[in-house]
Each structure stands twice: as C-alpha cells, then as structure tokens.
Amino acid sequence: MKSKILALLRESEGYLSGQDLCERFGVTRAAIWKAIRQLQKEGYEIEAVRNRGYRLVVLPDVLNRDELESRLRTDWAGKNIEYHASLGSTNVRAKAMAEEGAPEGTLVVADEQTAGRGRRGRSWSSPAGKNLYFSLLLRPDFAPDKAPMLTLVMALAVHRAIEEVGGCRPDIKWPNDIVLNGKKVTGILTEMSLQSDYIDNVVIGVGVNVKAQEFSPEIADKAVSLETELKKSISRALLLEKIMEYFEKDYALFLERMDLSLLMEHYNACLVNRNREVEVLEPAGAYKGIAEGINPKGELMVRLPDGEVKEIYAGEVSVRGVFGYV
Ligand code: BTN
Q1: Angle formed at CA 127 by CA 204 and CA 80, multiple of 5 degrees
Q2: Ligand 1 centre from 207 Cα, in Å?
Q3: Prior bond of 170 cis (ω within 30°)
C-alpha cells in the first residue's frame, strides 16, 4: 500500500484526500496516516492539511524498494525487486539469486556497493547516495553465443533513458559504454552462467554515474557524472524506471529476430565513433581503421586502409579513438 500511496502522491496535481485513500485501499484513516508517517521518515516531505489531505512537497532522490515499486509499470523487467542500502556487488547477488531459482526480471539494486565489479577484472567505484547500481536477471532460451548482444540492448536502453531524463544527447561507445561529452557515465558488465551448452541465466549489471564528483585516479580523466555535466538534479529512481521500460521494449525486438537488426539503426545513430578513425586493440596487436557501425550480430565493422571490412567481436578487443578514450 505504501508504494501505491507514493505513486498516487507523485501523480496527483493537488491534495489527495485521506477519505479517498481509505476507500481506495479499504483501510482506516489511522492506517493511511501510519503509511504517510513511514514515508516521511524515509525522506519524503509530505504536507498533511486538515480537510484537504496529503501532498508531496518535493520529490527527493530516494532510492529504495517502495520508491521503485511505486514507479515500475513494466510487465516483467524489475517486477521482483531486491533493494540493499549496502551490498558487495549487485551482480554477485543476482547470480546467487539465480542459483536459488529467482525469476526472470529479478532486479537487484544497491545504494552502495563495497565490492563493485567492472569489466576486465577492474573494480567499479560505488559510493553511497550518489549513483545507480543495479543488476537485471534474465533466463534466455537461446544459444550462448547470442548473449553478448544483450549488453548492447541494455546500452541502448540506458542511452534512451539518459537522453529522456537528462534532456541531453549522450553517445554509445561500442560495445556498451555510455558517454556524455566524451566522458564515460555508464558501464555495463554482463555475466552468463552456463548449464552444459545452454544458458542457465544472464545477469546484466549497470552502473550509472549520477552524482559522484570524485573518481579514482585511474579513471578520473575519462569518467564523469550526469549531474556535474548537466548541472541539474537527476532522480536515480526515475532513471531506473525508464531503463527498465526501454529494456523491456528493446528486448522484445531483439527476441523477434534473435539479433539486433531491429535495433541497429538506432544504435548506430548513437555511436560515438561512427565514421571516425579508431584504434582496435587485439591481443595479437593494434591496428587502425574507420568504424562503420555495428552489424546485426552487434559486431563493430571497421574498414581498414586497404578497403577490407573487419567485423570485430566485443569479447576479444577494445576500441578507442585515435586521440584517446573516444
Ligand atoms: C565497466 O567496467 O565498464 C562495467 C561496470 C559495471 C558496474 C556495475 S555496477 C552494478 C553491477 N554490479 C557490479 O558489481 N558491477 C555492475
């Protein structure tokens, strides 16, 4: 009931009458008042005026289960939410929940991570009260070689959400970083668990730098947060609401063809390096070429100086602009 009252308060223009709330939920005025008191304790500034009712005065950047449940209108993505004020890593927790039989769409969210994991064995800086850290559990019914494409589907969903909530024009750095004004605001770490040659589950972990002002020395020159860059406040819960909404839609388009053909036009339009010279760093050595966009499998097509087009698979290489990160 608390999360439903919260949703009504957020959506209501004026005051919400206590009597209406009682009738809607079939409970006493005292029960409504108790829920309001709990919301106030969680940080919501709710005005209570005799004979008029309740009104949400300001929308604070609260990130917790009630707030998320009050927002998510998806069919399955984020339907089962586990929220932690502090957690080692949302990916590790989501994988453990998968082992215990958690359903597809389970969403693990943390306000702080004490052992946030990045790609290539790096750590992911995850201070409390600043950013968005979450992992979404999927149980796909397709071959393991298709799983890396899910990271690109998520990148597109995060891109769309940042664009809408931030009112800005971010880019995607293939395969899955979101960049704003040339600096990284989002990282995605997808982990797959196999059962012989079938996928048991896939966990897609996302970290969005929303408010952080400091970053560790190794990433300080290439990371930035949305609020510092956009100079306005961003609600983490709203951002997550939008990401889930877009992911659910884009994932359905992915499943329709089992590839990215219905999404690649949009993805390529957001690609920061498109038609620019990039350096491809492969274990066997580095080379340069012009990035032409992704193909339906999510591979980056790079035209070499001799005209040959190489299709680069995300797992093996990293790509950067010839002058640095992008
Ligand atoms: C990267 O290195 O770019 C990927 C970073 C992914 C970080 C997110 S934060 C939520 C989830 N839990 C983790 O431990 N990592 C991912």
Answers
A1: 40
A2: 5
A3: no
